[in-house]
Specification:
There is one protein chain. The protein is an alpha+beta fold and 94 residues long. The chain has a single domain, classed as Alpha-Beta Plaits (2-Layer Sandwich), CATH 3.30.70.20. The protein has 2 helices and 4 strands, in the order βββαβα. The strands form 2 sheets. The protein has a two-stranded antiparallel ribbon. Strands 2-3 form a two-stranded antiparallel sheet. The chain starts with a strand and ends in a 7-residue tail after the last helix. The model has no long low-confidence stretch (mean pLDDT 96). The structure holds iron/sulfur cluster (2 copies). The site of one iron/sulfur cluster has 14 residues, from loops. This is Ferredoxin. InterPro entries: 4Fe4S_Fe-S-bd (IPR017896), 4Fe4S_Fe_S_CS (IPR017900). One of its GO terms (molecular function) is metal ion binding. Keywords: Iron, Iron-sulfur, Metal-binding.
């Protein structure tokens, strides 16, 4: 499971310290080198066991920036989020 930061990220930094599992890296460390922050999907647990909802998305000021992505084998994920939302990259905060 994972959430994903899209390229509309303004690299404000509001999300990174909210992540309980240090899954987020800043634009300098992103493997995409696209000026956006990045979520390692093999680290992100969708805040399961930590917060009621993804803390990064709650903190993000950029509407629609953080979206649902595919479930990753072996990782915790929010089972109330359907495949429809994941496959269409629906914003976590709508
Ligand atoms: S959903 Fe939670 S665990 Fe995943 S990147 Fe955001 S803050 Fe970190
Ligand atoms: S809070 Fe949103 S806009 Fe700011 S760095 Fe994180 S993903 Fe990008």
């Amino acid at each position: 499971m994972s959430v994903k930061i899209t390229d509309i990220c303004i690299a404000c930094g509001a999300c990174i310290d909210e992540c309980p599992v240090e899954a987020i890296v800043d634009d300098d460390d992103s493997p995409n080198n696209d000026g956006a922050y990045f979520v390692y999907n093999d680290k992100c647990v969708e805040c399961v066991g930590h917060n009621d909802a993804p803390a990064c998305a709650d903190a993000c000021p950029t509407e629609g920036c953080i979206v649902w992505d595919a479930v990753v084998d072996g990782q915790a994920f929010r089972d109330d989020i359907g495949e429809d939302k994941r496959s269409s990259h629906t914003p976590v905060v709508e």
